[in-house]
Amino acid sequence: MSAKEKILVTHEEYKEMLAAYALGALEPTEVRALEEHLASCDDCSAEVAEWRAAASALAFSAEAVEPSAQLRSTILESVRSISQPSVGTLGSARDGKDGALQTASNVIEMPQATRTRWSTGQKFGAIAASVAILALSASLLIVWYRLNDLQRQYEREHTAVEVLAKQVAEEREVRELLTSPGAHMAQLSGTNVAQQASAKLAFDPQTGRAMLFAYNLPPAPPGKAYQLWYIADLAHPVPGVVFNTDARGAAVMRDQVPAAGRSASVFAVTLEPQGGVNAPTGDKYLLSPIS
Predict the structure, then answer these.
(1) Rama region for 182: left / alpha / beta (φ>0; ψ in -120 to 50; rest)
(2) The sheet that has 209-215: what strands, in order across it?
């Protein structure tokens, strides 16, 4: 298989392919990819053997039907209608030909059941019905597999569209913010406790609108969170939004800056208690140049 044809799927997706594989319902590229996986996965190899056994037994999987009460009554009436020979007193009776002693018998002869013989056409019909059941089951499994595949594809594409739409909305919001009169963008750099971290702050002093874009911040410890500060007077920083990052250490935060912080020329991010504080107590993780 060429690198272009190779199918990269997860272990769970391989497991969803096993039923269709047992019925020979996969595409050739899917078969090759799955067989490569089966060569190294005992769990999936055992499961595909079970699927093959189940597929072989489909033709014999019809449920048993309970006879009706009416059928039982009809059989009993038929038995009662059979004439029973009288049982004589044990004694002797002479046969006219050989003189042998004859004894009365109380054995009731039951009518012999007629064996059903299937014609060639009936046998062919039964085989055709079994094949039809297998074909229908295979078709249903193929449809189920394709629907699952389409569902996964839709979810991937839907997620990608949502991410793109979010990025477009954020870019539009930043563009609108930066085109406001007096608005500017501040660059924050990581300190010695987070040297790889960085951030950008779009800030409009007139309206107080602000957006923070942070990158590569380490995860906040339990009970802790990051807090943004607006600093016009180094002795009296104005508290801003409290936030946490995602798994990549990134965050996008919006804030409405209090009037006391709108003249800020320096911005910082510190690690604080989760609910935020009125004055910084923790280490600085991000800091803009102090003019």
Answers:
(1) left
(2) 238-243, 224-231, 266-273, 284-287, 184-190, 198-203, 209-215, 251-256
Q: Strands 224-231 and 266-273: what pairing? A: antiparallel
Task: Measure the CA–CA gap between 201 and 257, rounded to whole angstroms.
Answer: 12
Whether residue 187 contacts residue 288, with contact meaning beta carbons closer than 8 Å, is answered with yes
Distance CA 230, CA 263 (A): 8
* 36, amino acid identity: E
| pTM greater than 0.70 | no
Q: Is residue 290 classed as helix, strand or coil in its secondary structure?
A: coil
Residue 48's φ and ψ, nearest 5 degrees, are: -70, -30
Tokens of 240: 């801003």
C-alpha separations of 124 from 75, 116, 129, 131 in Å: 31, 16, 9, 11
pLDDT along the chain (291 residues), means of 10: 50 82 80 88 87 66 58 69 51 47 52 53 60 71 75 76 70 71 89 95 90 94 96 92 94 91 94 95 93 59
Residue type, 65: V
Tokens representing residue 159 in the block: 């997620």
β-pair partners for 254: 211
Q: Determine how many CB atoms are found less than 10 A away from the CB of residue 133.
A: 15
In the Cβ-directed half-sphere of 185, how many Cα atoms lie within 13 Å? 10
Strands 184-190 and 251-256, bridge-based pairing: unpaired
Residues 6+ apart with CB under 8 A from 75: none
Alpha carbon distance 42, 37 (integer Å): 9
Q: How many residues does the chain have?
A: 291
Q: Give the pair of three-digit tokens for residue 183.
A: 């608005």
